[in-house]
Amino acid sequence: MTAPTKYVYEFAEGSREMAALLGGKGAGLAEMTRLGLPVPPGFTVTTEACKVYLKTGDEPPELAIETARALAGLERTMGRTLGAPDDPLLVSVRSGARFSMPGMMETILDIGLNDRSVTGIAKASGQERFAWDSYRRLIQMFGHTVMGVDGDLFEEAIAAHKARREVTGDHDLDAAELALIAEEFKAIIRKETGEDFPQDPAEQLTRAIRAVFDSWNGERARVYRHREHISEDLGTAVNVQAMVFGNLGDDSGTGVTFTRDPATGERGMYGDYLPDAQGEDVVAGVRDALPLIELKRLNPRAYVQLSDHLRTLEQHYRDLCDVEFTVERGKLWILQTRVGKRTAEAAFRIAHDLREEGTIGADEALVRVDGTELTRLMFPRFDTTPADVPLAHGVPASPGAAVGVVVFDSAEAVRRAAAGEATVLVRRETTPDDLPGMIAAQAVLTSRGGKTSHAAVVARGMGKVCVCGAEALTVDPTARQFTTESGVLVHEGDTISVDGTAGTVHLGALPLTASDVGRALETGTASGPLTEAVLGALTHADSVRRLEVRANADTPEDAVRARSLGAQGIGLCRTEHMFLGERRALVEAMILARDDNARREALAALLPPQREDFTGILTAMDGLPVTIRLIDPPLHEFLPDRTELAVRLARTEHPDPHDRELLAAVERMHEQNPMLGLRGVRLGLAVPGLMAMQVRAIAEAVVERLRAGGRPRAEIMIPLVGTVEELRLARTEAEGVLAEVQEETGTTLDCPIGTMIELPRAALTAGRIAEHADFFSFGTNDLTQTTWGLSRDDAEASFFPLYLEKGVFTVSPFDTIDQEGVGRLVELAVEAGRSVNSRLETGVCGEHGGDPESIHFFHRVGLDYVSCSPFRIPAARLEAGRAALMDITGGSDSR
Fold first, then answer.
1. Whether residue 670 lies in the annotated active site
2. Residue 352 is among the residues annotated as catalytic for this protein
3. Is the separation of the CB atoms in 445 and 404 below 8 Å?
4. Of 309, 454, 540, 772, which residue is the catalytic one?
5. Choosing from 845, 848, 856, 859, which is the catalytic residue?
6. pTM here?
7. Got the DSSP string for 169-218?
8. Phi/psi zone of residue 340: left (φ > 0), alpha (ψ -120 to 50 degrees), beta?
9. How far, in whole angstroms, is CA 562 from its chain's centroid?
10. pLDDT tens, position by position, 399-437
11. Number of C-alpha atoms within 13 angstroms, CB side, residue 276?
12. 47 in Cβ contact with 235 (< 8 Å)
């Protein structure tokens, strides 16, 4: 008989291993309770209860009973009753998804306050102002979050009271004023909803839990999950916890801290502390917090205790921990812990330092970083001089360099980004409702808040440049402008530069320079702690990975750079790029040739520059494989544009006869759908001598390198094969040319001949094709287009945004491989090909070869190598190593 599902767990019943059930926050509270840390007691309503609610629209029938039982236990532990008229128990109700979603779902504090208990808590605490401040906070939170009242109505009401009292901060309002505000807030709720703010504490709790469940499907939560690729069906847990109060006076306060700097990874406690405040005041950034070190002066005992608890947590979790805490009349309470979000720089430094300290091993250190983070570190930074005086300084919350036009609200950032314009979102402080704009903008700039504010936490998680707490800026979103202390006025649409590493803001667009990490990767020499950490991670990745990493490179210069970045050869050398520029005229001559002799002469003229290019690339990659793809695009791409030619001829009184020939050739070669027309192997078979010229150029380049003492490893790749007969004919011609060059030069040539698998038919008949192929290289760009039946250029500009918004795609299939469709074709082709030819080499040369998630797939299906653009090689090396480790352990990213 199956045991009944349990929907509520007291903190003491859980553990960190139960994150899927208790959510990340609940599992953290349970784990800290087990460790004996000072955690206010409480209980967690599981994600399973949320799933039932979201599916049926009602809570599980057992939930009310289990919640009442857990609440009774909490009341016994605390010696107080929820909402009692004298010295009441108050609780917080917080969301807690399995994966951190900071600020994306709802929180309701001070549940249990009503018209009677507010008086009781005022007497018990001896703080009348504190009691009324807590009550108005509850009414405001509950009214907006649970009852759906527009939050601006509450803000406008409290602003009117502050204006009347001629004060600027909420903190300046006394108990009498706060009592009036509470009554006004209740009136707003009654007017907007037709019902009264509930006075029954049990009803408050039930409705608050339900509101947290509902917030799982709120817009900002869905946008965040989509952005972070978090599954929609996980649901959120709900944590009900006894309230402790940081707003009881100067001996109280609240803060957020990290065990290491989440921006740089440096060791030490980093965070913010706000005396006489509740937790949301710090996160929201509505008041400027103090550096954490100030707690040492204000409450030395609590500071030492906090330091000890942070050390305990970091040693236990073996990672950077993000901790929320409250000091209530001198007593320290730990309210939350989680493995903290960090910047790319911090991720590498922390993993490296923990490895050096012996806390984690080399394998785990590698799994904790990823290729996406490494790519961010390779981005350029600002090249500033002493003359570049910043408009303002702020907190360097998330590093990097970004340039964009100023916008003052989320909608404008989204609108301009959709039009292709780079923006910087400027706010006094951000809220969860700003998430779409934060995603759209290149950088986020706020005049308030610190490293633990909403803007900082979310920007770090997304890898966005962010500067917070630039207090010298007076932001006026209504006038759509901000002013600096020196009087500089910046309007919406003006360009600024934001340096998230230095924490500075500059007027205009600053020039960019290469990153230290980029330089270190090319030279192999560390220049500081960060580059040492990156190079260490790559060295270990290289030692454990099975996949080789090659480059897509078409010139000797690209090949040299790719090799300096760690490429183990060239997986795709596109020969058509060699026919552009000044050489286009040679291709035109071949296309316009009137007979076989003229065509042969034109091809003979093309051979020397082809051979020269191949020689340079083989020299740069000496000893490493170079896979050279024979010409792929249709020939009309080497001719002038059809419309331009026609217009030029129409406007010219005495047209150039050559232009007439060109237009006639363009008209003759015009195709309705050239991507599926005369290109690839079809072109090689249809244009006599074209393929032979290219193969001869390759062969003669190999001979030249061998005679120079080199070790050339040229491989010939025939593109767009759809049937084994095409490959057989092409291979026969290529082998004939190789034999001719061998005989002419007396040099033995070993040039493997393979094909590019980029059509579904080729993948499905791979067993037959493998009979005539030494290797397969999957061209996943074209394979994706032909499998999906769409054009990348057209689709990404038209309906892709809609498909991503509606969840048809979670990510573009051109960015990350579609494992169910395109990936299945790759897998089938590998299996079929190797069943015929056990020595068949397989790789991928589409840009999926540099995508982290795709690399893990290619590792699993047994490819031999991935090939990508030179810039992506370091990230691909790193991910290939991570894929090998995660394949062994069957695990996933431990963060």
1. no
2. no
3. no
4. 454
5. 845
6. 0.81
7. SGGG--HHHHHHHHHHHHHHHHHHHSSPPP--HHHHHHHHHHHHHHHTTS
8. beta
9. 25
10. 788 999 999 999 999 999 989 999 999 999 887 778 889
11. 11
12. yes
